[in-house]
Amino acid sequence: MNDFINVTFDGFKIVANPFLADTTWQQVRFPRSKNRRIRKKWSRQRRNFAAVMVPRDPIRIGDTLFVHPLHLDRIRVVSNRKRATFTLTAVED
């Protein structure tokens, strides 16, 4: 199974690669109390954190642009606003 998506946009070849993301830890649970001392205790506990995928910046090599699929969605929105050519092509293994 190939996870890559090849797209053409205004002469650029765009390759969407889901592996162009970094994993960071982000606090997802917070105490109800706004007390600074309690928040500090919660920030030390690992159970309050979760791994979050953050897409990397696009990489341009020649006329090829390597992006995360989230960036590809943003490019599609921009192409609809500017009426640019945006074609989806088949992925070749």
What does this protein look like?
With 93 residues, the chain is α+β, with helices and mostly antiparallel strands. The protein has 2 domains: 1-20 and 56-93, no CATH class; 21-55, no CATH class. Helices cover 25% and strands 38% of the residues. The chain contains 2 helices and 7 strands, in the order E-E-E-H-E-E-E-H-E. It has helices at 36-44, 69-82, and strands at 5-9, 12-16, 21-27, 49-55, 59-61, 64-67, 86-89. Strands 5-6-2-1-7 form a 5-stranded mixed sheet, covered by helices on one side. A two-stranded antiparallel sheet has the order 3-4. A hairpin with a 2-residue loop joins strand 5 (59-61) and strand 6. It is elongated and about 55 Å long.
Order of helices and strands: EEEHEEEHE
Spatial arrangement of strands, main beta sheet = 5-6-2-1-7
Tertiary shape:
elongated
Please report the distance between the alpha carbons of the first and last residues. Answer: 9 Å
Number of domains: 2
- Helicity, in percent? 10-25%
